[in-house]
Amino acid sequence: MAAVKRLSYQDETYWGRPVPGFGPADARVLIVGLAPAAHGGNRTGRMFTGDRSGDVLFAALHRAGYASQPTAVRIGDGLELTDLRVTAPVHCAPPDNKPTPDELRTCAAYLARELELLDGTVRVAITLGAIGWQALLRSLAEGGWLIPRPRPVFGHGTEIELHHPDGRRLWVLGCYHVSQQNTFTGRLTPAMVDAVLVRATELATGH
User: Fold this and answer.
1) pTM score of the predicted model
2) Which of 86, 130, 166, 178 is most buried (CB neighbours < 10 A)?
3) How many domains does the chain have?
4) Is 8 exposed, middle or buried (0-12, 13-18, 19+ CB in 10 A)?
């Protein structure tokens, strides 16, 4: 996907490799997106950095106190996250920005590893869209978490509390993806993202 560049980025060297999650390893809040955008994370090497989706997400994270600045342009731009980590079920830019079942299966181990990394600290996981919701619940089930039957369906504002046999608890919140398709049409507004983040903070901190 790094071979085909957008005209405005012709002079840039695209990252063009799997994009890792980022943020502190002891975060209490985890955001699970979809996949790097072809001319966003796939170009910059950092999730949600350098594209319109990131513009919406990081502005909201800054308002909520999770990001040190409201913009994410490139690695080394000064952005730092506090108590929040960002990852995705797929770490390479998929065709048409929609991961295939094969890609989701191939990358499943990476999402599981992110969850292991945050084991003991993460209290809330926010999924951006239905694919992230399904991938996260699948990974949690494989990690021994007790998932209700029938499996909860994604929806904006949906929240479920999950339990692990060892006593751990995790809240999973649903939020529409911050894609242009949702933000440009008004299906997802900044206020809606803010509300999910406020709820996540309440659950993560016990306030």
Assistant:
1) 0.92
2) 86
3) 1
4) exposed
